Structure formats: structure tokens, C-alpha cells
Amino acid sequence: RRERQRFVDKNGRCNVQHGNLGGESSRYLSDLFTTLVDLKWRWNLLIFLLTYTVAWLVMASMWWGIAYLRGDLHQAHDDTYSPCVANVYNFPSAFLFFIETEATIGYGHRYITERCPEGIVLFLFQSLLGSIVDAFLIGCMFIKMSQPKKRAETLMFSRAAVVSQRDGKLCLMFRVGNLRNSHMVSAQIRCKLIKSRQTPEGEFLPLDQCELDVGFGTGADQLFLVSPLTICHEINSKSPFFCLSQRSLQSEQFEIVVILEGIVETTGMTCQARTSYTEDEVLWGHRFLPVMSLEDGFFRVDYSQFHATFEVPTPPYSAKE
């Protein structure tokens, strides 16, 4: 069967685009900081460079304008004349003075004299504006670099889910794993079934979301993720898969969205990893191969077998049957 459109990709990206916002698009500007953090890296770097370049050129032009209006440019080399800013006699020198002031380099060759009140006011304005721009842009870049999205890439999900019997009950299972030695604190997993349905009143719900119980009542959804775990959903009378059989699976159309959340141990930030399984990725009558083995004083995880499954005898009937 050809691959159909997914609601959530295997890498966790949601295939949802917002359009026709109209006047509501102004909400993005009201939360400008979050908008910049959510942008892609290439746009962040472009805005970072453009903001500093424009600010530098504008402030350097203001220093050059003061020197031009006072006539300092024509008398800059006169030792008896007291200019607003010493040794500023053209735009490049005004630009260098601004950079020295903004970066607190202070080579000592260019400096403001006490006979230039407009220069003192501009210096105070430059200091305040520079602090605001630095705090905004550098804070934005720091938050973007410290986002735990990359940590989610070291959390693995099995490529397929399986349906087989466990403890005499028909179960839907998939596997999760953590590639890093650092743990996920308070790791919790949730599952959503995305499926179109029609209500008894005739209302059509194209992407109806239904919760899949993966141990919420027993605490099995709280994971100690130090080794790969097999997450189990028991198909009982409360499960939306209660009438699902091996034969009806071939004609069904649904998507199971898996959400794994936890706190990164090293940074204390909340991390979320997502994936999904369509009906084509649910294997009836399969079980996952073991990946744990006992070595000399420790347990070894063989991730080469992480996605591997094997067939087991499983009744082709639904849990209801």
C-alpha cells in the first residue's frame, strides 16, 4: 500500500500549517521573542546580523552627524580646537569610535570631550539601546541553542508496532529507548489514536483524537528509561481496537501518535519526543527481539536488534471475538 499523508511524521514533526490568519497574525508580533526563537536557524542568523549591522550604521551615522554639524570634520587636525569627539574626522573614524564604545574596547585614541552635551546624551542613549539589543538578541540565541530538541533525537522509537498476546491478553506494543547515558527524569509516555469518525448526530470528525491507555491507572506510563522498554496497550473492551482483527486491519485507516516527555537530567529542561504509527506499520502476530544481555558485571544493550521482530502464534481474531 502506498504511503498516505501522516498527521505526525516518524521524526515527530507535525504536518499542520496554519493559514488565513487575517488579523490574528499580529499576535506573532505581540510575542516577538517566542516568534524569533521558533524561527529556523538561517532566519535567526540573518536577523541577528541585520539587526547589529543596521544598529551600528545608524549609530555611527549619528556620531558622524554631530561631528559634521559642529564643524569638527574640518578642524579635526587642529590641536587648538576642542571637538565633540577627539580624532573623529570622517565616517570610518566615527564608526570605529562607536564600535570602541559599544564593545567597551577603549583604545584611548578617540574619546568624548566635556564640551559636547549632545555627545554625552547620545552616549547614554547608545549605552541603553545597546544593552537592550544585546539582551534581546543574545538571549534569543542562547534560548534557541539550549532548546532540548536535539536531546529528543537520541530517544528512539521502534519503526513498527506489533500486536500479539502477552499474559494471555491481546496487546498493541512498541519499543522506546534512550541512546544516552544521561537519564530522562520523570519520563512519561502517552498515546493518541487519530482516526476519522462520524457521530450518531451525523457530524464528521476528520481527525478525532482518542486516548490509548498505556498504563495510566497502574503507573506503567511512568518510565524508568535506562534501557529499552516495550510499551504495552491492552486491547480490552475499553480499547478503541476492541473490534480490530488481523483481517480488518488491512482495511482500517488510523494513526497512533506517541508522545514521550521528560526532564533532561543535565539541563533540567523539559524534552518531548514524538513519533507515529499508521495501520501499515502495525504488525499482527509479531514480537520484538530481546536486546538486553548480561556481560561481565554490567548489562549490554544491542541496538542493532532494536527494530527487529519475529512472528509468534497469535489468533487472527479481535479481542471481542
Automatic annotation (TrEMBL):
SUPFAM superfamilies for this protein: E set domains, Voltage-gated potassium channels
Family of this protein: Belongs to the inward rectifier-type potassium channel (TC 1.A.2.1) family. KCNJ3 subfamily.
Keywords linked to the UniProt accession: Ion channel, Ion transport, Membrane, Potassium, Potassium transport, Transmembrane, Transmembrane helix, Transport, Voltage-gated channel
Keyword flag Transmembrane: yes
Location of this chain's protein in the cell: Membrane
Name recorded for this polypeptide: G protein-activated inward rectifier potassium channel 1
Residues under site feature: Role in the control of polyamine-mediated channel gating and in the blocking by intracellular magnesium: 134
Membrane topology: Multi-pass membrane protein
Domain Potassium channel inwardly rectifying transmembrane residues, every copy: 8-148
GO biological process entries: potassium ion import across plasma membrane; regulation of monoatomic ion transmembrane transport
Segments crossing the lipid bilayer: 45-66, 120-143
Main location: membrane
Position of the signal peptide: none
Gene Ontology MF annotations: G-protein activated inward rectifier potassium channel activity
Catalytic function, reaction form: K(+)(in) = K(+)(out)
GO terms under cellular component: monoatomic ion channel complex; plasma membrane
Inward rectifier potassium channel C-terminal domain: residues covered: 155-321
